[in-house]
Specification:
alpha+beta; 10-stranded mixed β-sheet; 7-stranded mixed β-sheet
Length: 344
């Protein structure tokens, strides 16, 4: 079961454990320069608004209704990252959830065509809460290419570059909880369990493989960000393959959003250059956990700036190289559970 509340998706597995819940937010962020340099993690600039496709059945394309799911508004060349967290179970820990992310039905970790299972060789999924966020395509050990929204049809998106078709677009998310018996063994209870109750509206399982030529936006690889994609610390059999939920996130451009919902889209995001010139912080999340090596297939794709040069399109606006001078180190040198002291 998937629910949507306050623009946050929650993947819930009450038949496995009342606290087996994955929460995902789609965060607005800076589009970093697509110049080949490696940048720290950009900040979150707030949630994208998220709406049910079914609530606007009269105005969305028919194929969107067949797929179901939700929709978000994005400007052309705007960036997005996914924030992930899981429910904390009192005196046990956070309930682990395996998460597969795709764009245009292309796996964002491996670059392979979407499939509905979990695979370890190579690992084609991430694990929450160990992986707190995902900013882009895994293209090397400790490096991702930023998720950047671009119109389908001009060859920018990962989907078009790998398959040759502008068929699906959007973002796909599928989740599997840890088996209850495994969780109880790995995270033994010391006192009564915490029980989760929720009255959020249901989104539902919403992932159908249907051609959608009317989809307006897909995701293309952008600038390089320093980010690890962590190895799964558990075994493949720890995951409950019989319990899964999946959601299709449709991407609307600003004109579509206003026409479909009657609401204005969010204001255009601040540029990375303006943000940095104001002395605002960037981030570096440190962990000694093993990381996956990245996908050679995804690393070989043209970025938005590369493809614009290939097809003779105008260059990206606000793509000048910059120096992220104020970088906050997150978790570096800290033990599990240790709090980072403030810098007064």
């Amino acid at each position: 079961m998937i629910t949507l509340s306050k623009h946050e998706l929650a993947f819930r597995f009450p038949e496995v454990h009342p606290g087996a819940v994955l929460r995902i937010e789609l965060q607005r962020t800076l589009r970093i320069p697509d110049d080949g340099n490696l940048y720290p993690l950009p900040p979150g600039l707030g949630q994208f608004p998220v709406k049910h496709v079914d609530d606007h059945a009269a105005r969305v394309p028919a194929t969107w209704l067949e797929r179901g799911g939700v929709m978000v508004p994005m400007y052309q060349a705007e960036a997005v990252w996914l924030s992930m967290s899981t429910r904390y179970i009192n005196n046990q820990g956070s309930y682990p959830i395996a998460v597969k992310i795709g764009t245009g039905k292309i796996n964002a970790v491996t670059g392979q065509a979407w499939n509905t299972g979990l695979n370890r060789k190579p690992q084609d999924y991430i694990v929450a809460p160990e992986q707190p966020w995902l900013d882009g395509y895994s293209v090397g050990k400790g490096v991702v290419r930023q998720f950047v929204a671009m119109p389908l049809g001009d060859g920018y998106t990962a989907e078009e570059q790998i398959t040759g078709d502008a068929e699906f677009g959007g973002i796909q998310i599928q989740a599997w909880p840890m088996r209850r018996t495994v969780f109880d063994k790995r995270f033994p209870v010391t006192i009564d369990e915490f029980v989760l109750h929720s009255s959020a509206p249901i989104v539902g399982d919403c992932f159908k493989s249907i051609r959608n030529p009317a989809a307006a936006m897909g995701i293309a690889p952008g600038g390089r960000i320093k980010q690890q994609i962590f190895d799964d610390p558990y075994t493949l059999t720890d995951w409950d393959m019989d319990q899964t939920s999946r959601c299709f996130v449709h991407l609307c451009n600003s004109q579509q959003w206003r026409a479909i919902t009657g609401s204005p889209p969010p204001a255009k995001p601040i540029t990375a250059q303006d943000y940095t010139s104001r002395g605002l912080p960037w981030y570096d999340y440190y962990s000694e956990a093993p990381a996956v090596t990245g996908s050679a297939k995804l690393a070989s794709l043209e970025t938005v700036a590369d493809h614009a040069r290939t097809i003779g399109a105008p260059p990206l606006n606000h793509n000048e190289t910059l120096a992220a001078q104020r970088v906050i180190q997150l978790r570096r040198g800290l033990k599990d559970g240790q709090v980072r002291e403030c810098e007064l």
